[in-house]
Amino acid sequence: xxxxxxxxxxxxxxxxxxxxxxxxxxxxxxxxxxxxxxxxxxxxxxxxxxxxxxxxxxxxxxxxxxxxxxxxxxxxxxxxxxxxxxxxxxxxxxxxxxxxxxxxxxxxxxxxxxxxxxxxxxxxxxxxxxxxxxxxxxxxxxxxxxxxxxxxxxxxxxxxxxxxxxxxxxxxxxxxxxxxxxxxxxxxxxxx
Length: 192
Known about the structure:
Layout lengths: L2 H53 L28 H5 L35 E4 L7 E11 L2 E5 L6 E9 L7 E8 L10
Antiparallel strand pairs: 1-2, 2-3, 2-4, 4-5
């Protein structure tokens, strides 16, 4: 082999190496894009599911379902969150409860699970799906005024807002969702 053939062989080897590296980079980036899209879809579904769960609960623990109660009877803004029993309730590792969370009632006769909207204040749900692992969902609940639903109210009102934040290692930033729950919306069902 002469010098020209050696240089051509070396150039071809360098070109082949660059092509392989670029192909691998495209495959890795395609995988990352796929996982980002999957995490976005699954995270959105998890948030929507939790919003639906929250919306099936009573407005407040003292809500009698009449739709005519005075604000006086509702929890003060500083006392939102689950009761001691609800907070300490632990789901046992039982395979028959797969997919169940601390906030969901296992039976209507027992006093397990969250039963009103503000129980979800400070709630954290960890979810691993078959496709994407490591979702963390954080919930904050607070009173808002009907004219300013984005601003927390320091006083009781007939509106509570639930902010849901979903994070996952595949997401570049947290996804944020919210819902406004007005007093009187509760239908008398405790949900699932």
